[in-house]
Design a protein that fits this description.
Belongs to the PHP family. The chain has 7 helices and 8 strands; from the N terminus they run βαβαβββαβαβαβαα. With about 250 residues, it is of the alpha/beta class. It has a single domain, classed as Metal-dependent hydrolases (TIM Barrel, Alpha-Beta Barrel). It starts with a strand and ends in a 13-residue tail after the last helix.
């Protein structure tokens, strides 16, 4: 499966990542990506930038090293109500919002609580994708969450780092279950390297292989073309990005 968008990447601004956005864009160009989502951790993650970092992304050029730049965030889910750690003023400046559960911010709880949390995140309307759902510390009921994601056009991320065994250990089994059932339900999938160093940009081989294993239709993998990704954002109610007119 040919992936041309990396929808989950970090820069040095996240506090525990080691490359700049310029370095990430250069690596993206060298690896054949067409679009790069820059998604630093939102403020409640230890070491993360102030919310001005996200509100000010409007100053970023739309292209760096001939790669289209999507202004994004990996927001932290705060509570069972599905609230995120960004003020309302931030969303108008962002093209792409991932919501994730992170142990330093959201203490793992019960299957029931995790399930209701994810459903409330989806229904909030603020989130375009759910990040690294395979984390075994946050088990949830797959069917209601995936069906809710389908209903509200929220993408399910297949996170390559989760499949390496180096982070969120044990995620591979859960990710496999999510992709298998998600394919049956008909959710949209997105793929992210979760790069914290530029050399990890576009490292999506494991995510791609998992999607292929379950014969997921490319039309449901929004990162397989610039048109699919950008039109998914329109489906989500985002404004058209005129600088990317040739990519729709």
């Amino acid at each position: 499966m040919n992936i041309v968008v990396d929808s989950h990447t970090h820069t040095i601004a996240s506090g525990h990542a080691y490359s700049t956005i310029i370095e990430n864009a250069f690596e993206s160009k060298n690896k054949g990506l067409r679009l790069l989502c820059t998604t630093d951790h939102a403020p409640e993650m230890p070491g993360a930038p102030h919310y001005w970092h996200f509100n000010n992304q409007r100053i970023l050029p739309r292209f760096l090293h001939q790669v289209g730049i999507l202004r994004g965030v990996e927001a932290n889910t705060l509570n069972i109500d599905g609230e995120l750690d960004l003020p309302p003023s931030s969303y108008q400046h962002l093209d792409w919002v991932i919501a994730s559960l992170h142990e330093p911010v959201y203490k793992p709880a019960s299957v029931q609580q995790h399930t209701q949390t994810l459903i409330n995140v989806i229904k909030s309307g603020k989130v375009d994708a759910l990040g690294h759902l395979g984390n075994p510390n946050y088990p949830f009921e797959l069917v209601p969450v995936l069906e809710c994601a389908k209903q509200h056009n929220v993408a399910i991320e297949v996170n390559n780092t989760s499949l390496t065994g180096k982070s969120r250990k044990g995620s591979d089994v859960r990710c496999s279950e999510i992709v298998k059932l998600g394919a049956e339900i008909g959710v949209y999938f997105t793929t992210g390297s979760d790069a914290h160093f530029c050399h990890e940009i576009a490292r999506l081989n494991l995510a791609s292989a998992l999607l292929e294993k379950y014969s997921v239709d490319e039309s449901k993998v929004i990162t397989t073309s610039t048109s699919r990704f950008l039109n998914f954002l329109l489906l989500r109610g985002k404004p058209r990005i005129e600088e990317f007119s040739s990519l729709y």
